[in-house]
């Protein structure tokens, strides 16, 4: 299985090659990256056999990489605990950018959610309407890290929200 996946990655890397006058730098870089990844994973698979590690996991990582999926099947664990309070001095005013599906009540609903979550009124709002999606920038007073995370959690519960910074 692992050799088939590696061979597929090499075939894909060769298929990307075109004559120099027709090749963009991005395509050339992608081909180089695929070739290097295939060789590195081939080495990793052989090292894994020597170390007693399951080489199918290495092969699935290559398959995920070449198909546009996640590179690693077992990502590193995320740190637990709240770290925002180490970076930000509370209370403070923060700006949140929320992108969501355009709807007549989207802006008012998001402002209300932010106000209820933080316990303060939204001080400023700017809106960009791009047809299918709306982008809202909200200035909001945040008293603690818990309130900060609550705002993100409550806004994320709205099914129309696609992205929040």
TrEMBL record:
InterPro entries: UPF0250_YbeD-like (IPR007454), YbeD-like_sf (IPR027471). Keywords: Signal. The keyword Cell cycle does not apply. The keyword ATP-binding does not apply. It comes from Diacronema lutheri (Unicellular marine alga). This is DUF493 domain-containing protein. It holds the Pfam family DUF493. It comes from the Eukaryota. Residues 1-15 form the signal peptide.
């Amino acid at each position: 299985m692992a050799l088939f996946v590696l061979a597929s990655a090499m075939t894909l890397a060769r298929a990307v090659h075109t004559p120099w006058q027709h090749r963009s730098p991005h395509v050339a870089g992608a081909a180089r990256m695929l070739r290097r990844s295939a060789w590195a994973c081939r080495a990793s698979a052989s090292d894994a056999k020597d170390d007693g590690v399951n080489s199918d996991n290495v092969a699935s990582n290559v398959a995920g990489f070449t198909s546009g999926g996640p590179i690693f099947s077992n990502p590193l664990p995320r740190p637990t605990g709240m770290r925002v309070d180490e970076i930000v001095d509370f209370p403070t005013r923060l700006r949140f950018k929320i992108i969501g599906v355009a709807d007549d009540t989207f802006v008012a609903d998001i402002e209300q959610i932010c106000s209820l979550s933080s316990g303060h009124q939204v001080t400023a709002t700017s809106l960009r309407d791009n047809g299918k999606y709306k982008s809202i920038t909200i200035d909001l007073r945040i008293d603690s890290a818990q309130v900060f995370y609550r705002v993100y959690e409550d806004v994320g519960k709205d099914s129309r929200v696609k992205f929040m910074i």
